[in-house]
Amino acid sequence: MLATVIAAWLIASLNLRRRTIGFWCFILSNLLWTIWGWHAGAWALIVLQVCLAVLNIRGVKKNDPAHT
Fold first, then answer.
1. Distance, CA of 38 to CA of 13 (rounded, Å)
2. Which of 21, 48, 62, 65 suits 27 as a labelling partner, its CA being 20 to 30 A distant?
3. Neighbours of 47 (CB within 10 A)
4. Mean pLDDT across the chain, nearest whole number?
5. What is the pLDDT of residue 63?
6. Residue 9: enclosing H or E segment and its boundaries?
7. Cα–Cα distance between 40 and 29 in angstroms, integer?
8. How far apart are CA 16 and CA 7, in angstroms?
């Protein structure tokens, strides 16, 4: 949970470096939640984390200056 909160804080920054670190924190958060979900048998949580990771990756690609 802490990784998710830190990621959200960093993503809201105007600084590109902080936003990038926030993205990787979100990916780490997705991984950690997935591991916990696997351990707990929480399959819906795992699906949710995969979907959120895909959305985060999509957001980064859409905001890449090379694609605008």
1. 32
2. 65
3. 12
4. 92
5. 76
6. helix 2-11
7. 16
8. 13
Structure tokens at 54: 């895909």
Distance separating alpha carbons of residues 42 and 56, to the nearest angstrom: 21
Look up residue 26 and give its amino acid: F
Q: In whole angstroms, what is the distance from residue 50 CA to residue 38 CA?
A: 12
- pTM attached to this predicted model: 0.83
DSSP 3-66: HHHHHHHHHT-S-HHHHHHHHHHHHHHHHHHHHHHHHHT-HHHHHHHHHHHHHHHHHHHHT-GG
For residues 31-47, average pLDDT: 97
Could you give the CA distance from residue 20 to residue 36 in angstroms, rounded to a whole number? 25
Q: Is the dihedral of CA 19, 1, 45, 42 positive or negative?
A: positive
